[in-house]
Automatic annotation (TrEMBL):
Residues 77-211 form the Peptidase M10 metallopeptidase domain. GO terms for cellular component: extracellular matrix. This is CARDB protein. It comes from Pleionea mediterranea. Residues 262-358 form the CARDB domain. One of its GO terms (biological process) is proteolysis. Gene3D superfamilies: Collagenase (Catalytic Domain), Immunoglobulins. Keywords: Hydrolase, Metal-binding, Protease, Zinc.
Amino acid sequence: MKQLISIAIVLGSLTYIQSTEAASWRTCSGNKIKWDSNTVTMRASNVSFPSGSSYRSALQTVISRVNDNPSKFNFNLSTGDTSVGFDNGQNETWFTNDSDALDGAPAVAFSWTHCYWLFGWRHGIDEVDVVFNNNVTYTSSSNKSALNTYGGSARPFRTTATHEFGHALGLLHENRYYNIMGQDWDFIHANGNSTRAYLGEDAANGAVILYGTTGGYMEDVSLSHHKYLGTSGEYSRHQPTRLYNSSGGNLSRFGNSGEWVYRVNKGQTVRLELTAENNGKSYQSPAVGYYVSTNNYISTGDRRIGTGSLGLGRNIPYTFQRTLTIPSNLNSGQYYWLGAVIDYNGAISESSGVNNATYVRIYVNY
């Protein structure tokens, strides 16, 4: 029997399994419902994603980021589709004003699946259509100032699209961990003024559970200044990581340009909190360098004030704290950025190195 299942950003009620592993998926008599093939083509509407448009470019980036995981599965993107529709035997993506189909959601992944017995269980995904709400204020930009995550006015299209293509891959909503399949707009990497949407460790591990591990090389570690906050129905909620005093208590802070700024004293001992992820194939024990910078782009060229290491298996994101000392020769009354670079010594050959650094903003008291 062929079934339609719609998976929206803001609602949905599905049977799923949970385990000590990360991620969730639909099942049929205990069997995982997934694509029969490890390669699936998605067709993008030429009206919604015209040639040369920023949204086509953003969509192509999203597909690349979803594919950047250690499973055997990959999407192909075909552009220029002139006729899109539901249940037509093609996997398609487009923007629509159809309020009945979207039911108020910013985006929906409509999945057609089969699950029946015929001398053995037959189960799998037949078609997925990813549809975006044309009435939502999206932005294709990756600039922090444009995103509601950082005080801007628009929802980041790239994080929402990554969430929906996670559904197209076969994953369900997640409420246990920091995860793109939970609240999507603040599951994001940032360093400097740019942001980066990505699939993340939890969802990447789910892809491996569904489709197996790639035979090729694929390693990637990353840092984020967001973390798991709690549960909102089927969704995980997230919040910015924090800076604490030496005993783990809250530091005074204030908002500036959509981000928290922590007040610190020269020579003060603090605890920097960040979230590390192993998005790759193998266990890693990366070295981490800790830095103070005069700008919001953390790099190994900044002043290093500490080092350490982490042990990261591929399963669940790891939020940790590192004790650091604020240098005593910083300028009073000035903003700085306290941050870290994972794999700062370049010991891991990574599929992406642009997600290795992030920060928390500070202000040095008089």
